[in-house]
Amino acid sequence: MSRYGRLLRVGTAAGAGLLLYVGAPPRELWWLGPVVFAVLWAVLHGRPARAGFGYGLAFGLGFFVPLLSWAGEFVGPLPWLALATVEALVLALAGAGVAVVSRMPASPLWAAGVWVAAEALIARAPFGGFPWGRVAFSQPSGIFLPVAAIGGAPLLTAAVVLTGFATGELVRRAAQRRVPRISRLAASAAAPELNSRAVQRPSESSAVEFGGLRDLVAPALLAMVPVVAGVVAASLVGTTTSDGQAVVALVQGNVPRAGLDFNAQRRAV
User: Fold this and answer.
1) Are 45 and 168 in contact (CB under 8 A)?
2) In angstroms, rounded to a whole number, what is the distance separating the alpha carbons of residues 137 and 123?
3) Where do the domains of the chain lie?
């Protein structure tokens, strides 16, 4: 790949990360989630692990730098950028993993599992975890949200990411199917005698067309499974109000001392 091609992929990955941030609350652009991961799939598919690491890092920085900008107000720009970089490095590992599994059968399903595993790592390390920026948190509403009642944030993340990756794979296969067709039409126009020979073998052409359509079925089904799951879950989760009273306790979070020492007093209230 040329230098400009790599730069384009880096820019696209960073832009996808920024787009995921744009779709998160307080904005309710939940539908941007699948779009983001469809774009990221186009960047990562078929890439070596090393390239996937770099593109994943660009995605992570594009997402976490604006997402964690509030931290700079308390600790300054260097700790803010350091924290964003650490979080982005985990998504860099996810990018490498997605690039590797993108060559496997049912690759969007494996890739979604890689992403959920990366979020689980962020929630546990370093320093006991910092689970800001889960994909699930970008879904305050929408068709995927009801699955959270079944499997929590991990399943909600998996639903959004799987739909995006599977849609990206569907578009990729459809584009690959279209290119040979255009090539055949161009060859037929340039050499009519070849076209006449092709007409004499309709069964072969039909088999090729059927095989191409069959290749689109798997990613299309994978893209639809989370959508159907969301619809089914919505019908199972009760949304009607109930009578009665509930006792709720509230705890005001704080630390004994003000200033930067608040970071040194984890769980102190």
Assistant:
1) yes
2) 13
3) 3-170
